[in-house]
Amino acid sequence: MSIEQIETFLAVVRHNGFRHASRKLFLTQPSVSMRIQMLEKELNASLFIRKGRKIALSDQGKALLPYAENILHIYREAVRALRTHSIH
């Protein structure tokens, strides 16, 4: 599981779809889809319920959501801390 996959998962959730998430992340829609597919494969989980162009979080996606938010928050805190300590 990579930070990019977590960021992509959260973007799809927050922006209600792959197309909108791809715009926010400055990625192609196939890139967003690939990241989600790779994450789902690694976790052996279906994170979204796809109905035509609409998506919703699956139960597994709902279970992952708070962990994904925490992972990204902690990652960003670590990056800030390291940047602060590297300033001379």
TrEMBL record:
UniProt domain HTH lysR-type: residue ranges: 1-58
Keywords: DNA-binding, Transcription, Transcription regulation
Protein name (record): LysR family transcriptional regulator
InterPro entries, sorted: LysR_HTH_N (IPR000847), WH-like_DNA-bd_sf (IPR036388), WH_DNA-bd_sf (IPR036390)
Homology family: Belongs to the LysR transcriptional regulatory family.
Signal peptide positions on this chain: none
Pfam families from the UniProt entry: HTH_1 (PF00126)
PANTHER family named among the record's database cross-references: HTH-TYPE TRANSCRIPTIONAL REGULATOR, HTH-TYPE TRANSCRIPTIONAL REGULATOR GLTR
